[in-house]
């Protein structure tokens, strides 16, 4: 008998951060993406020294979203969305400076995909 | 007496000239004072300025009364197709292959973020916001066209200007 079946139902449930199901989480992500898209012309004006084209900026924003494409945990998605909103406010209020904004289009995966084979998981320490 | 009136008119001429509208500005280039009419009659500057003000108002009103031609479903369809064709990820491979049955994700291989980009482009084109609850109705081009037609109350035949039947859109106000 595995651990998950032995646990009572009440212990398995965790308090949601914001969203209760995947549809709601997806809606939040898409809304966040939309406000970033709407901000693009203003970002170009506010951070004119970064000399972004509209396409490049759009790709950078999309890159930042796609970094976390493998996240499936609802609570993690919610936290990432909240962080994205805070980033948005920082960008829109011009609290960032040139180099700080330039990090937006640096290619870097924050989320490491979990290994699924037995040996791979063993190497990773799972 | 005439001298006084003339001098009075000449003193205020600059003020009157400032109020002249664009088509009436031709009078300034001729060296005659503005209160001398084409037929040589001299009008008091009060009349001239009042007439100018009224003409300006007429021009302004006429500008506001001009309305764009009504939208037809075919207009909306062509505009939606143009937006989809302009979107660069569609442009790469599938330019001009888009029909009303094209599904954004199944046929064109776009993901949901690209879908949001198309929706934002549509919002910019048609000038109203599409609520996020309606995103999953808008997966094919034909669905988008139908949705916009429904939202914008577009009808195929132009509405008659004078009609004895009450406008069904305003029924709420009568009941």
UniProtKB/TrEMBL annotation, chain A:
This is NADH dehydrogenase [ubiquinone] 1 alpha subcomplex subunit 6. It is found in: Mitochondrion inner membrane. InterPro entries: Complex1_LYR_dom (IPR008011), Complex1_LYR_NDUFA6_LYRM6 (IPR045299), NADH_Ub_cplx-1_asu_su-6 (IPR016488). GO terms for cellular component: mitochondrial inner membrane; respiratory chain complex I. PANTHER family: NADH DEHYDROGENASE [UBIQUINONE] 1 ALPHA SUBCOMPLEX SUBUNIT 6, NADH-UBIQUINONE OXIDOREDUCTASE B14 SUBUNIT. The lineage of its organism: Eukaryota, Metazoa, Spiralia, Gnathifera, Rotifera. Keywords: Electron transport, Membrane, Mitochondrion, Mitochondrion inner membrane, Respiratory chain, Transport. It is a peripheral membrane protein. Accessory subunit of the mitochondrial membrane respiratory chain NADH dehydrogenase (Complex I), that is believed to be not involved in catalysis. Required for proper complex I assembly. Complex I functions in the transfer of electrons from NADH to the respiratory chain. The immediate electron acceptor for the enzyme is believed to be ubiquinone. Residues 27-87 form the Complex 1 LYR protein domain. It comes from Adineta ricciae (Rotifer).
Automatic annotation (TrEMBL), chain B:
Gene3D superfamilies: ACP-like. Keywords: Electron transport, Fatty acid biosynthesis, Fatty acid metabolism, Lipid biosynthesis, Lipid metabolism, Mitochondrion, Phosphopantetheine, Phosphoprotein, Transit peptide, Transport. It holds the Pfam family PP-binding. Residues 74-152 form the Carrier domain. It is found in: Mitochondrion. The keyword Lipid biosynthesis applies. One of its GO terms (cellular component) is mitochondrion. GO terms for molecular function: acyl binding; acyl carrier activity. Belongs to the acyl carrier protein (ACP) family. This is Acyl carrier protein. It comes from Adineta ricciae.
